[in-house]
Amino acid sequence: MRMLLVITWLLFSLPAWAHKPSDSYLSLSVQNDHVEGQWDIALRDLDSAIGLDRDGDGQLTWGEVRNQHDQIKSYALSRLALSADSQACTTQLLEQLIDHHTDGAYSVLRFRSDCHGPIGQLAVDYRLLFDVDAQHKGLLRLTQRGHTSTAIFSRESSTQNFSIAEQSRWTESMQFIHEGIWHIWLGFDHVLFLLALLLPAVLIRVDDRWQAAKEFSEVCWNIITIVTAFTLAHSLTLSLATLDVIRLPSRLVESAIAGSVVLAGIGNLYPIMLDRRWMVAFGFGLIHGFGFASVLTDLGLPQDSLLLSLVSFNIGVEIGQLVIVALFLPMAYLIRRSWSYPKLILTGGSLTVIAIALIWFTERAFELQVFPA
Amino acid sequence: MIRFLINIHMIGWFILSQIGLVTAEPYRPQDDTQVLERLSFKASDPDTRKLERLRAELRQDPRNLDSAVKLATRYIEQGRSEGDPRFLGQAQAILSPWWSEPSPPPAALLLRATIKQNAHEFDQALADLDQLLATQPTNAQAWLTKASILLVQARYDEARRACQRLARLAASHVLIGCLSDIAGVTGQSARSRQLLREVLSNPDIVRRERVWIATILAEIAARVGAIREAEQSFSEAFKVGIKDQYLLGAYADFLLDQQRYQDVIFLLHSETRADGLLLRLAIAEQGLKLPTFEDHTAELLARFAASRERGTSVHVREEAWFTLALLHDVTRALPLAQANWAVQREPADARILLESAVAARNRAAAKPAIDWLNHNHVEDFRLRQLAQQIQEVAF
User: Fold this and answer.
1) What is the ipTM of this complex?
2) Contact assignment for B245 to A15 by CB distance below 8 Å
3) N or C: which end of chain A has fewer CB within 10 A?
């Protein structure tokens, strides 16, 4: 009968369509002499490695995680070693946050590794969890000079080398232009801000009522002043922040950007600064520039061609912005005389912009998750 | 003013949720009591304490074979009931002292084969089993596992021979289950169903084995269109009360085939963690045009992308099915279905290959599955219908 008992546990095949296996997500962004990193590790994995469920109720609360930040830190940092040109880098943990991936909650570790001088060859030694889960993988995204590459760490290949290669100035510059264009298109807050400012540009205000602008040149002039002011302002702060002259906390910057979108929308409903909209564009443009700067830093800035990448990224942002204007202007100009433009498009559009931006503002300023992921 | 703010907030929330512009940034929770994650084991369970003891023993002596086998077995069992591959990786880690050895002890060899089988490394798993059976020809579990791999590879004669070795090693119902699973595909479904029904009428069959036998019977009955018998057998399997991912998936497939979408949603609404079950749930939601369908499709898309990124390919059958049924992308579904057919050949694999070929109007692509149907006299009325459809497809 012994055999029968054995059989009870392994009948036919296990379902192969199980859920996601254990992965961690490691992002490294190489900046001349140091590396900025973010490491997302599943809470379930941390629990099986060091035991987070202190009260043993089968649930992990934020309190349990927070109380064991030190253990998480020392466990994780002991399993990741970076070295540049055979010299070990010193890693410092900056903060621990929470994020939700498709398969559950992750602990997010943000860190910085200093590597005594410019990095030529980066070696990454990854040993997280392999002793506990032999099928664990570490998915790496390495960013340098606007260029991203990926690699996978497994038990069989736990150490990998990356050369922080010299690239031709031209490719590098194209990469940053490309990133700049995409950033303005995908960064919906910038698009919304710009649209909010542009919505009334095809109208003029006569006796407290909206009227369609008569001349195309008038409309163009309106738009040129707004876009130029926005560009000058964000280029200024983008440069200052990238060159490390001014530094602002990202939470402040991100909330202020959301706030600027709200105010731009309100400005359309209560038009008091109509003739000086370029000043609004300039003032808030200063804040948006700081937002661009944090993106640029994440891309991994080459120290020797800092200026080139800065200028290229900025050119990309301007191209992206001009495309938006080029799409918006003809359409708005054509329908500006219709009764629906001031009511439906200007008022309705501005209200929509305000609504969306208010949510962003709440999320960013109070660190609330309005949408549980 | 406040009411205006609240209203406008609601509008923003609605717009963002509709267009999916959700900014999922890492955050710092504000509330210590916020539950972030639910775990598989509760430390307060006596069962978990037993596992903890085994883990402690292994920390002292990682080469303690007895504890390692016990713990790895428990993990594989947990993986089966939850469908979580983490447990297989953990079982593998426990076996690491023996993992790369050319000839590990028999107990470790059996577990190694099981883990490799689950990773779809079928040939390596068979090699391990053959090595084990050369020294331990009476190991019933090894014969059974071997038969199941050969069945998935459509090597029916060899699978049958492996089952027959169980005759003197295990109780008769294990032999019947093993053989019927093969015979149910290869043209002897009536006899198989009769034998399996007799087995189930015996009240002494232990729980896991009852789930196994009832599931085999239900699937055979469903394939030949005996809907009522299939329904009864599925409910027999569920009555045992062991959570089993395979059973959930098989029953969901049965319900989907009859367009009983509401029942699928009732069955699977809380099973969103396992990819295969989430896929079936999303198909049902699509059938009922529920709004959750889009979220679940997006989620599955992300999971298949992640699986490709990590370089594993155990999900190809599901990915092909997902691509065809939810993305409606025929040109990508067919190569996936073909790649899957090269690895595994069960009725479900033939089904996705034929469906993709019909959708792509590609008769040549269907040929391997049709040859398999005819050569083995496969009894499956839906596969026969699909084979008929592909014949009608004009060149």
Assistant:
1) 0.73
2) yes
3) N
